[in-house]
Amino acid sequence: MGLGFWTGMREAQVGRIDARARAEVVATEEKRYQQGRTDRAEEIELSNLTSLRGAVLPMIMARYSKNKEQRDSITSQLSALEGYQLSRGVSLALIKSGQAGTVIETAKKDGGFLRPEFISHLTQSATAEHGEEDDNKLAEIVLNGIKLVGNDLSDANQEASIFEAVFGAKTQEQLLASIGTLNITTPTFTSSALNINFAEGQALNQGTITSIARETKERMATMFGTGVKFVADSAGGSGSMQYDGTVPFGQNRATNVVSKINDVIVKVQQSVRDISGNQDKVFSKVQELIDLNASYENVMNYLNFGIGVNQRTRSLVFAPIPVSPSELPDATPATDSGPTQPEYGGFSFNENTLDALLQ
Question: Of 311, 297, 304, which Cα lies nearest the Cα of 282?
């Protein structure tokens, strides 16, 4: 064979090697290009998902916050209204009508009470609007299937669920599907206003308050004895007390007792409108304590925790006073100026003392 044959074979072989090398380079570049396109697509998708998250999260959280704010407001107002001796159904009816805040302010202006007559008026207005039902049924009618109050466990986990739905999703499709399962709708909880005459809930007028203060000073001056005199005010005010001699508890403490008795009678009068009857009953208990030589601590403790009003029966209730000094421990002697009386002893009352009597 000639030399040209082998040279041709060699050239063909080299050509195939070069072609294969070029094909491999092209394949590598094509693979790199396709990977780049895939990476870029993933970057774009991730960027779009991040942008979508950033767009929807504030919106979802705003709706969640509005829902929670409404629930918290209803719960707070419900607690306040029930504290003023209104039933749950009537309280919810007032909240739904948007009049709860006005009723709460009315109670605050009257020392934290609603008059029994006003409570009855509110109850009649609620039943006129929603029907004659017992309290549980009335509450159910007012809520109308919307669970806005009570122990709803979704509240505690709602925020965590929102973040899990938004940031746990790996794709836009998953994100949109997850958002659709969230409970973020704020229900509408309103109705027409109830027919309420707020004049029935008015606080005591100043003339009544002045009259109570004047009567308290005058009667307590008599109870305290010859060392205390009541001085009338020619201008029609509440007058004053003059201390000239021996004063039970000492002058400063006697003044505290008079002030506390006045506060108690005013507070009672706000709930049970019977000035003469209220004063007679309270002064009778104070006289009983004084006759028993009760200490200053005994008297103040009784005035703070031993007198209340049963809103159901609209009557005053009194904690029993121990009748025998031998039943009681020794009290700490008075340290205020003035002579110290024989001590009646100490007895303790607290905010729970009258619970059974107020049922």
Answer: 304
